[in-house]
Amino acid sequence: MSMTDNAQTSLWKGAFGDAYVDRNAVDDRHLSSISRMWMEILSLMTDAPPRSILEVGSNVGLNLRALRSITYAEFYSVEPNDRARAILVNDGVVPRQNVTDGVAQNIGFSDGVADLVFTSGVLIHIHPDELLAACREIHRCAVRYVACIEYFSVKPESVRYRDQDEALF
Question: Rounded distance, CA 25 to CA 83, Å?
């Protein structure tokens, strides 16, 4: 099975991923909270603020929407779910040419496509056997900064997630 053709990817591309899109509707209060988080993160980059930002696994773009209010950077997105990508483009969050169907293990953009490449709640859904490949791809696409906003556990383990096995690690 290729890195983009596995059970996890199929899960996020299908009805399970569509339900996730539905649960992540845009909410002003939530966007305000995300904006505050990004202001804090970007304050650490004042010497060279990112002019381009790639979110890996952006879903409907809550992070990118929050970033839009505090930066003029050009946005890119990698997202496996068709509905989420359509929302990103239709809502004007990311230009169509900057959105690609992909996963962290196979991003599909060129080397150094963005100054900042980040994930938020994505690496936790990648099987530990594929995590290094995902990190290499993220690093390959980043010019200067990598940010991972994730849960952490010293010991990898699979946790049942919304009645699914092998969907949260």
Answer: 12
